[in-house]
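Protocol step 6 of 9: fold each sequence in the batch and record its C-alpha cells directly after the sequence line. For illustration, a two-sequence batch is reproduced in full.

Sequence one:
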Amino acid sequence: MSDAQRRTARTVLQVILAVLVTLPVLVAALPIEWQQTPWLVSVVAAAGVIARVMQSDQVDRFLEQLGIGRGDADGRHEA
C-alpha cells in the first residue's frame, strides 16, 4: 500500500468514526428516521475521494501559488 493510499484510508476511517459518534445526535436533532440515513455512506465516500484528490500534484502546485508550501524536506513547515 502506498503512502497516498494509507493517508486516504486514514481519512476515510476518521470520517467513519466521526459519523458514527455524531449519528445519534444528528438523528435526534434532525427530523429524520434511522432508515433515512444511507446518505451518510455518501459522506464517507466523498471524504475518501476528496482526500485522494487533495494529494495530487495539481493541488500541491495550487497551494504553492497561494503561498502554502510543503515545508522543508525534513517535514518541518516554515513559519
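Sequence two, same batch, same settings:
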Amino acid sequence: MTKRVLAVDDSKMVRDLMSYMVASGGYEAETAENGAMALEMLAQQRFDLALVDLNMPLMDGYTLVENIRGNPEWEDIAVIIVTTEAEAEDRRRGLEAGADLYLVKPVDEVELLTNIKMLIGDPDG
C-alpha cells in the first residue's frame, strides 16, 4: 500500500507544488487549504505524513500540529512544518507543538523527499 502524504497550505500554488513533489517521489498526495479542512480529512482517511504551513486562515499550523499530536489515533503521523517563517522563535514553537521537522520555503524537492523518506520510509515500504 502506497504511503500517503497530506499537504496543508492556504496557497493553491504551494499545495499543487507540494503535491507534485510528493507524487514524483512515489507517494500518494492529498491537499487541504487550511487546518480545519486537514482535521476533517485526517478523521476520514489514513495518512502517514502531513506537510503543514504555519500561516493559514481558520486554523494555523501550530494549532493543527497540536491537534494531530493530541489525538491518539494520529500519534504515528509524521509532521513536517513547511513555512516562510525562518525565525528561531517560530521554529521553537513549531517543534514544541510536536512537528518532527521544520523546513523553510522555498523547499528543494530532493531535500523534501529525503526528509519524507527518513520519517516514513519508501513509498511502497
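Proceed to step 7 once all outputs are recorded. Observation for sequence two: Residues 71 and 118 are 23 Å apart (CA to CA).
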